[in-house]
Description:
294 residues; five-stranded antiparallel sheet; 45% strand
Amino acid sequence: ATTHTWTLTEAWEQVSAGGHHTCGIRTDGSLYCWGSNEPLPVLVGDPGTRWRQVGAGGEHTCAVRDDHTLWCWGHADRTGVGAGAEGPTQLVVPGDAPIASVHAGWDFSCALTVQGDSVCWGNNDNGQLHIGQRDDLPPIDSRPTASLRWESPITSLAVGHYHGCQVAQGILRCWGLGAEGQLGVVEGLAPCAQNRACSPEGLAVEPPEGLSWTDVNAGKAHTCALDEQGGRLCWGNPAHGALGDGVADGAHHPAHAAIQPPRRADVEPRRWQALDAYDFRGCGLDEQGGLWCW
């Protein structure tokens, strides 16, 4: 393993935080990870390998190289590389489709192709692979599989711990575990693992009247999305302030509702340009470039 002592002058292009580790891509395309089994950043892959995007999950990581190929490593039944693999291993995508980005959940992952389709792999006990059905048994060798095709192309894709969401043609659909309201709907759910409510097919989330969706991000048991006017809407479990609306009582909010930005007495409601979420946390960039977290 190659380690490096970092200085404050070194620049990063992208970072992704997982369950017990974090990975980041530097401006030269090199990828480093650190966390539970290595406190210092460790170079991933061979020196000179250039990466374009990384997604850190529960106990696994997936990343996309500059040539749009998909690579994963970590917990064998979640990565899709099979038992016995050591280090980054390339995954075969249906049709050898080039990959634009990859998004890692707790025990599954989904990737967005350059053409705007999605593929998912890993655990599917709550229908999180978005293939229209769920599986009771843990995966032994799950490989990337084409997801259900609704509207296309997909322009925004996000996964939480056990659910996923996508935006295509301004329409937002969510699937997987919905027991805590993270799918944004309360009807049309079916019993899944441990008799919790889920939707393997995916359900449409209604936007504010007259508007369409532009972006979506998912945390452990909540989801946040942007409408075309830069409005931020969140739904799901507000424990630990996850929804950014000043509520942290652990009660479930099964239906979405417009919320204010993170509570500050001297700040008026504002427009947002980007969101990110993980576990019970979230961050967003407002239209002035200000960074807010909750």
